[in-house]
Amino acid sequence: MKRILYSLLIAAVILPGATAHLQARDRKPKTSKTVQAAEPVRNVILMIGDGMGLAQVTSYMLRGGAPLSLARAQSIGLQSTFSASSEVTDSAAAATALATGTKTNNGMISMTPDKQPLRSVLERAAAAGLATGLVDTHAITDATPVAFIGHNESRKNEDDLAADFLRTDIDLFIGGGRDHFEKRSDGRNISDELREKGYTVAYSLDTLAALDKSPVGILLADKSLPLVSQGRGDMLPRATDQALRLLSANGDKGFFVMIEGSHIDNGGHDNNAETVLSEIRDFDAAVKIALDFADRTPGTLVIITGDHETGGMTLPSDENKFDMGKLQPGDKNRATVQFSTKGHTACLIPVYAYGAGAARFSGFMDNTDIPKRIAEALHLE
Ligand SMILES: [Zn+2]
């Protein structure tokens, strides 16, 4: 009975946010205090689709062949993504904003433009005793994941960024980038140094599945993992499932984890709609696992967003002949996905939230607001 009443209370708080497009009063961000009192947040799952804007998501709704789990979002907002140095952000500056709540120049990792290190929400969560994790389909030292734990004036210094994994007691990380831990120009072996700190460092998800305690680092590729279309399989959904299993074994303290679908961005850069579609499908499968986890784990907040849009993707229509393939010479009666650039764009990016405290993420935001609101929800110092 208590549970039913609690659910009704949650519904009463969250549902108005879900209709934010309908009424002017709902366009304002919700004040957080009411939500905070009703719904303590213990676990935060931040999911980033690299290069994922509205067209990318819509392409999956129209041509993905399966329901979009993202559509279960209870609260939807928009974030601006410009960096300190450009109207069009790169992944490093965007990740710095999403990790630390501060704008920096393109190319920089969790440092101010004048090279002062910035504290990330993951570092703050770890200091507060929460379990923390990073899951990625690219190198774990790539810009998006590493901004949550590393600090460097350049995203290119991936050997240095790998060494930053020794500085924060992160409980779990899964991704590629093994070379930056074990085949380094300075001859150090960061995997061995992590082992000396008590980590299990291993190289397969099967090994991870057999573990029941952290800290653990799983390095699945020398550099990036491949695209889904090149054989990555269900690594991201599996890794998400395993990460949530291990991090939630942390008792009452809760956890913070960032999970990235990195290669949606590649589809945009390559102007390849099929890659966008297969990578969104994979990311959305991981989203489903996170939302199902939130359903059975009270106090879990899931935030799903992108870091920027890639490709200037549009979905033109010609009656119902629109399709995902490339336009071939002589195609007159087909409408296909179009791209306006091989790079990133400045477009606003949707922010989807689900579970405890989801209403905090409705309305208009800047990317720097997101970690601030996460830190508030978790009462981080
Ligand atoms: Zn990016």
UniProtKB/TrEMBL annotation:
Family matches, as InterPro entries: Alkaline_phosphatase, Alkaline_phosphatase_AS, Alkaline_phosphatase_core_sf
**Gene3D superfamilies associated with the record:** Alkaline Phosphatase, subunit A
Q: Where is the active site?
A: 91 (phosphoserine intermediate)
Q: Does the keyword Cell wall biogenesis/degradation apply?
A: no
Single GO molecular-function term? alkaline phosphatase activity
Binding positions (Mg(2+)): 50, 142, 144, 260, 344
- UniProt-listed PANTHER family: ALKALINE PHOSPHATASE
Q: Which residues form the signal peptide?
A: 1-20
Q: Which lineage do the record's taxonomy fields give for this organism?
A: Bacteria, Pseudomonadati, Bacteroidota, Bacteroidia, Bacteroidales
Q: Which domain of life is it from?
A: Bacteria
* Stated family: Belongs to the alkaline phosphatase family.
Q: Which cofactor does it need?
A: Zn(2+); Mg(2+)
Listed name of the protein? Alkaline phosphatase
Keywords from the UniProt entry: Hydrolase, Magnesium, Metal-binding, Phosphoprotein, Signal, Zinc
- Summarize where Zn(2+) binds, as residue positions: 50, 265, 269, 307-308
Organism of this sequence: Alistipes indistinctus YIT 12060
Bound cofactor: record note: Binds 2 Zn(2+) ions. Binds 1 Mg(2+) ion.
Against SMART domains, the record matches this protein to: alkPPc
Q: What Pfam families does the annotation carry? A: Alk_phosphatase
